[in-house]
Amino acid sequence: AALQSLYLATNALSGTVPDSLGSLAALQFLFLNSNSLSRTVPDSLGSLAALQSLNLANNGLSGTVPDSLGSLAALQSLQLGFNSLSGTVPDSLGSLAALQFLFLNSNSLSRTVPDSLGTALLYLWVSDNQLTSWSSNSVCSLIATGSLTACVLDNNPFTCPLPSCASVCAATCK
């Protein structure tokens, strides 16, 4: 039987996230959170077509959020918070129709909140980054329909104006 779940959270692991994990075709759950992993999130993880949950939070990861993660059609939960990731939030994440939980908080992500986010999104946590722009109303639409139940975008240096729902997400601007 092929490996479907890999839970190695809180195991004092160090080193890098192996590229070879991308070859585990049947993998549905990958939890490597709360370790001391470093370097980048491998592009190869974008080939895990069956992946439903990816948790690499609370490590020492740097570099960017790979665009390849936007091809994970089955992904329901993406947790990359509490790392040192930089660059932008990839627009490709907006194509993840099954995504319900997006946690990118406490990194150094910059520029803008993505123009589109999946319609299944329940929780959006992108606080404590370096985001400066948010012009799309896609998040507001999700709030208005009641599907997005938690939205936290505080502690970002946003430039005014912000969408009408910004206060619901605790976002402020200068």
Structure report:
The chain has 174 residues and is mostly beta strands. Helix content is 4%, strand content 24%. It has one helix at 138-144; strands spanning 5-7, 14-16, 29-31, 36-39, 53-55, 60-61, 77-79, 86-88, 101-103, 108-112, 123-125, 130-133, 150-152. The strands form 3 sheets. Strands 1-3-5-7-9-11-13 form a 7-stranded parallel beta sheet, with no helix packed on it. It has a 3-stranded parallel beta sheet with strand order 2-4-6, with no helix packed on it. A 3-stranded parallel beta sheet has the order 8-10-12, with no helix packed on it. The model has no long low-confidence stretch (mean pLDDT 95).
- Helix and strand element order: EEEEEEEEEEEEHE
Structural class: mainly beta
Q: How big is the Rg?
A: 16 Å
Profile the largest sheet.
7 strands, parallel
* Largest sheet: spatial strand order: 1-3-5-7-9-11-13
Low-confidence stretches: none
Could you tell me the mean pLDDT? 95
Distance between the termini: 55 Å
Question: What is the tally of beta strands?
Answer: 13
| Outline type | globular
With helices defined by DSSP (H or I, 4 residues minimum), what is the helix count?
1
- Into which percentage range does the β-strand content fall? 15-25%
**Helix fraction?**
under 10%
